[in-house]
Amino acid sequence: MPYCQKRGCAVEISQRKKKILAAVVDAYIRTAEPVGSKAIAESTDLGCSSATIRNELAELTSLGYLEQPHTSAGRIPSPQGYRFYVNELMERQKVSLEEAEAINQRLNEKMEQLDKLMSDAGRLAGQLTGYPAVALAAPRAATVSRFDILYIDANTFIIVVLLSNNTVKNKLVHLPFSVEQGQMQKLAALFNAGFTGLTEENITPVLISATERAARDTMGLTSILAAFTIEALSECCAGEAFVTGESRLLRQPEFRDPEKAHRVMSYLSDSRHLMGLPGTEEDDRIRVIIGPENLAEELRDSSVVMASYDAGEGQRGLIGVVGPTRMDYSSVAAKLKYIADGLSRLLGSGEAPAGFGKMIVKGDSLNHEQ
Amino acid sequence: MPYCQKRGCAVEISQRKKKILAAVVDAYIRTAEPVGSKAIAESTDLGCSSATIRNELAELTSLGYLEQPHTSAGRIPSPQGYRFYVNELMERQKVSLEEAEAINQRLNEKMEQLDKLMSDAGRLAGQLTGYPAVALAAPRAATVSRFDILYIDANTFIIVVLLSNNTVKNKLVHLPFSVEQGQMQKLAALFNAGFTGLTEENITPVLISATERAARDTMGLTSILAAFTIEALSECCAGEAFVTGESRLLRQPEFRDPEKAHRVMSYLSDSRHLMGLPGTEEDDRIRVIIGPENLAEELRDSSVVMASYDAGEGQRGLIGVVGPTRMDYSSVAAKLKYIADGLSRLLGSGEAPAGFGKMIVKGDSLNHEQ
DNA sequence: TTTAGCACTCGGAAGATGAGAGTGCCAGCA
DNA sequence: TGCTGGCACTCTCATCTTCCGAGTGCTAAA
After folding, report:
1. Cβ contact (<8 Å) for A261 and B244?
2. What's the CA gap between A192 and A198, in Å, rounded?
3. Which of these, A40, A235, A251, lies nearest to B261 by C-alpha position?
4. In chain A, which residues have their Cβ closer than 8 Å to the Cβ of B311?
5. What is the nearest nucleotide to B37, using C1' and CA?
6. For strand C, is any atom closer than 7 Å to the CB of B14?
7. For the domain bounded by A144-237, which CATH number is listed?
8. d(Cα A286, Cα A232) in Å, to the nearest integer?
9. Three-state DSSP class for B357?
10. Which of A126, A231, A298, B277 could make a disulfide contact with A245, Cβ separation 3.0–4.6 Å?
């Protein structure tokens, strides 16, 4: 029998072996205990004895799909075994009707506060799957499409910038000196003329000082406005990451060891790490990263399941969960997919969803001290 | 000797007993191991033998300040013992010069992004102390002080609301029908006349429909604006809570048990729980809540140390850390106090800090999908 | 009031034991 | 040739025992 032992690409693997492997993975996912030949013989309907299963198990082990914690223990799936399971054996699970409804309800509830939808989708994924969840928005370049200044009084104004991705940013500015409304208007007009359509990098010191001269601005207003514009663009392009429910890891027996749990959790809680998660530019497939396949050292004995969605404006978002390699891949994947599809539907750049044409609003706020 | 055994209010407790109690607490904080009479005799400079100490320990135990995990183990402080220690024995620690500088630097760095300052202060507190940290802003009623509408095109406009606490909120609105700029201006004027100075509760359906009539608005614009105004006010008054570094709990030996750690961590990760933390209206003293003094069941064997600060605009913020009852209260308290004082200085409603008068700006942003 | 001394207690570490689960392999059978 | 029952063997885990030592409480003397 010709086998190719490389990374789960078994050229030939008998139907029975597949069935047995699937049984091992399923049972191990359920119980977190090594699975023995007898248990498999009883739980499956292959009409053969435990001795036969034993032989098959031995072969699967030597092929690298299974591992034995020690002689005379049952078998557990190796990462390669999980990979094969995920790629070929796993039955695509459907979310149940109740779950689907719960998800829909939760998503619709959140529609009014679109800004929170992203992180809430992560939260939802975590709650549904019982694992820690991450949510991230892929960074994306933006330009300024419009520039306004609201004149409050001689010392105070609000800058409002509308970006190309329909983000609105604002800033309240108090000055220690007075300016005239006309001056502010002139500046706004200059910015509208000169700064729209530019990305962050295009806003050069040369451009700024040219604008400053054109505005006859001797008080540094131009640089205030320019600095804010740059900040708005960069903030907006930075992408964001949220993690929720880290502590759920502790419910998994494989994270009984506080040392190990701490390693993973503190890795997760630094959002910088998450931003580096595998690119989201992919198609909308589910991605499964199993144990050692993780680039990050800290996640080498955890698995990650991710789904990406269309967040509108050509932007993609990502939700995912982190758990032990013994994760219920099929149910997790199904749930994530369902949520991601729901988000794409709600946010996606396709035609506006029915019943949502009346008004589409997004709010945003920040705390300004005097 | 007349003792009052109630809640740590020992009417008379000898100087030597105090010294011994302090030694027990200090040693236990350091080692997390029960402390024996011999160790105390050696580590302190009271010129007496371990036998004497034993007698004193026995008395302290019967007074309720100490506990014995079992006969023939050393003593550990009881919650009452900790309370007494915190109230009377603890030497007010100073933050070291390096720490002070590190804190100042971190705080100043963040000044440009005031919106993140609050949660970053929590993060800083957590990093410095090595415990999970919480940061919260006390909710506070606000009113609208100004109302603007930026007309983008016939179907699109941005609402900008300036609140009494100098928060600016905005919302991008797309309409499925056209409106005229004049109509929008009229509405803005009406809202400026009728809605400013009102709190959330004061914006009644009666007022809204009166405005609608006055504006001859048949397209529901008034209710869009009103709804956003209400939302802005309520969001702004909701208060916020951040938790960072939950996983640090796992480094504490008392949270070796994943069950226990999970209980506390999942309690912390629900920010609704945190909002109910003891009122922050207090003076600017440090608050220490020891184990069973916690109202929340889940925190009964943890301690919380909190410091509140003046966040300007009459608003108070709170930073705190959560750890085992065996917490290094004095160093934690000192660090929190230092950070809180720093924040009060930077944000406080007193005179604007020197070198900060040039301009005070705060940004804010949100993602608006089309 | 302090101290030295001593018997006593108790938890926890270190081995000892045994049960049970599971394996690998062999010999016989279809 | 492949499957099966049987059997000896291995190894973990839970339980039990033993034992050490830290630390106590008490007593009698200083």
Report:
1. no
2. 11
3. A251
4. 369
5. D23
6. no
7. 3.30.390
8. 32
9. coil
10. A126
Across-strand partners of B361?
A173
Q: Which amino acid is at B309?
A: Y
CA distance B268 to B263: 9
Least confident of A66-75, A164-173, A344-353, B359-368: B359-368
Running DSSP on this structure, what letter comes out for residue B298? Answer: G
Give me Rg for the CA atoms of chain A.
27
Give the fold, CATH level 3, of B97-138+239-368: Beta-Lactamase (3.30.450)
**How sure is the predictor about A92, in pLDDT bands with cuts at 50, 70 and 90?**
confident
Separation CA B260–CA B268 (nearest Å): 13
pLDDT exceeds 70 at position B351:
no
Q: Considering only CA atoms, name the residue closest to the C1' of nucleotide D9.
A: A72
CB contact under 8 A, B369 and A347: yes
A30/chain B closest Cα distance in angstroms: 20
The answer on pLDDT for A229 being more than 60 is yes
CA distances from A162 to A205, A346, B233, B282, B344 (A): 22, 22, 22, 41, 33
Minimal CA separation from A92 to chain B, in Å: 31
Contact B261 A247 (CB under 8 A): yes
Could B255 and A250 be called an inter-chain contact, meaning their C-beta atoms sit closer than 8 Å? no
Which three-class secondary structure state does DSSP give residue A370? coil
Sign of the torsion formed by the C-alpha atoms of B268, B273, B274 and B278: negative
Sequence spans of domains, chain A: 3-89, 97-138+239-368, 144-237
CB A322 within 8 A of CB A131: yes
Written as one letter, the residue type at B121 is: A
Answer yes or no: is B44 CB < 7 A from strand C.
no
CA proximity to B136, closest of B295, B262, B273, B259: B273
User: Among all strands, which nt has the closest C1' to B47 (CA)?
Assistant: C2
What does the pLDDT look like over B163-212, one tens digit per residue?
A: 887 778 888 888 888 999 998 999 999 999 989 988 888 899 999 999 99
Each residue's pLDDT tens digit, B146-167: 999 999 889 889 999 988 877 7
For A3-89, give the CATH class: mainly alpha
User: b/e per residue, A35-63, with b = 16+ CB within 10 A?
Assistant: bbbebbbeebeeeeeeeebbebbebbeeb
DSSP A337-362: HHHHHHHHHHH-SSSPPTT--S-EEE
Q: How far is CA B244 from CA A256, A314, B214, in A?
A: 22, 32, 49
Phi-psi label, residue B133: left if phi above 0, alpha if psi -120 to 50, beta otherwise: beta
Contact B365 A236 (CB under 8 A): yes
> pLDDT per residue over B40-76, tens digit each?
998 888 888 899 999 999 999 999 999 999 888 899 9
- Judge if the beta carbon of A189 is closer than 7 A to nucleic acid strand C: no
Say if residues B291 and B327 touch (Cβ distance below 8 Å): no
Q: How many CB atoms are closer than 10 A to CB B359? A: 16
pLDDT at B281: 53
Burial of B317 (0-12, 13-18, 19+ CB in 10 A): buried
Range in A46-50, A162-166, B4-8 with the lowest mean pLDDT: B4-8
Residue A365: list chain B partners with CB under 8 A: 167-170, 232, 235-236, 364, 366
In this prediction, residue A108 carries a pLDDT of 77
Q: How is B196-221 classified by DSSP, letter by letter?
A: TT--GGG--HHHHHHHHHHTT--SSH
DSSP single-letter state for residue A89 = I
Minimum distance, in Å, between the CA of residue A91 and any CA atom of chain B? 32
Q: Whole-angstrom Cα distance, residue B134 to residue B242? A: 6
Distance CA(B344)–CA(B340), nearest Å, equals 6
From A311, which residue of chain B is nearest by alpha-carbon distance?
A: B369
